[in-house]
Amino acid sequence: MRNFNFDTATRILFGKGKVNEMTPEILASGSRILLAYGGGSIKKIGLYDKVVELLNANDIFFVELSGIQPNPRISSVREGVELCRKHKLDFILAVGGGSVLDCCKAIAAGVPYQGDPWDFMMMKATVQEPLPIGTILTLAATGSEMNGNAVISNEETLEKRAMGSQLLRPVFSVLDPTYTFTVDKWNTAAGVTDIMSHIFELYFTPEKGTHVQDMLAEGLLKTCIHYGPILLEQPNNYEARANIMWASTLALNGLLAAGKIPGDWATHGIEHELSAIYDITHGAGLAIVHPAWMEYVLDENNAWKFAQLARNVWGVKDEVDMSAARKGIAAVKQFFSSLGMPVSLKEADIDDLHLTEMGKKACLFGSIGLMKKLNPEDVTAILTSAI
Ligand code: NZQ
Ligand code: ZN
Questions:
Q1: pTM surpassing 0.85?
Q2: What is the span of the domain harbouring residue 41?
Q3: CATH no. for residue 26?
Q4: Is residue 253 within 8 Å of residue 143, measured between CB atoms?
């Protein structure tokens, strides 16, 4: 196991009614806030009214930024930066799913930065002294509630790129599973897929001797496999929503990466190209790419790891690593499909016109992946195998 420092930074307020503990957390960091949300789901579930009531009761000044879209746009980031500067805001409260949270992180970084916030996504700028942010999560998927990452889309250049900094970890996150009761089947399934994909990204590294991390990862995967299908039938099942919500957070808060090379991440890189061009839901794109990536990178040297996953998570009994590995990959694909996710480009109505372009764009900053280093031709081959 490698040396590591583990620091989570975010205070988690988990459970029903925990929003009532939020205002002291805000006031510890700021008093003039940007209240940011998406297309209106927080109004439908009564959360908007509750938040406004709490802010007013504590004389906290706020300005609103609404309409943040899934696959959040750089234009929303620019709008948020302007609002923060104009009203001299010193704290951002993000209420929604990963898209709202990510947009707010980019705004937080953009306020003190003199250039265009897209520079962060192009690695032309580093985050310095961002505004502090707090979150109220309404969709379990990304882990954005406890990490320093943000993924932003540029609608002009059809690019979707990530930025990251430990400084962007939220100071607090309210995780109340009841807020996720209204998430529809599609976004629930996409969320479960995204959580599993994060675990796969961190699980599949070429090193040995990371038993703790592997067992944690396998336990979280089993949690998704157990509760995911239950949620599709029982959206108001608190136990299932709570377990999936906490799994989402633990999958990408640094815990599984500590002591390891921090993940493969080729699948996410490839999926971002699908989202950038076709505006597909992130989890749905991952359901297509992840099994195709697994089939492509599997070889004699790494079959043991795929076989370990197959045996420990999917209960595959095969003693031959390569055939056990293949059965495990088939089980992943079958599970995503059973959740109602597409597992081929065709099922998502995606044509084959941009496969070469996506290969090039995915490798803009060099080859991607760890289990196998992928160049543009490899990425195009993976996408072609997913047609
Ligand atoms: O906009 P509203 O009206 O809120 O509706 C949203 C949106 O349409 C809706 N929704 C959210 N909470 C709801 C709800 N509907 C009913 N009831 C609720 N309680 O769900 C739709 C999707 O929301 P979105 O925030 O886009 O979903 P998600 O949380 O899956 O976020 C996806 C984004 O996060 C990025 C993805 O690339 C994508 O852009 N990621 C962020 C990561 C990170 N920061 O660490 C890592 C991930 O790998 C991922 O790349
Ligand atoms: Zn993801």
A1: yes
A2: 11-179
A3: 3.40.50.1970
A4: yes
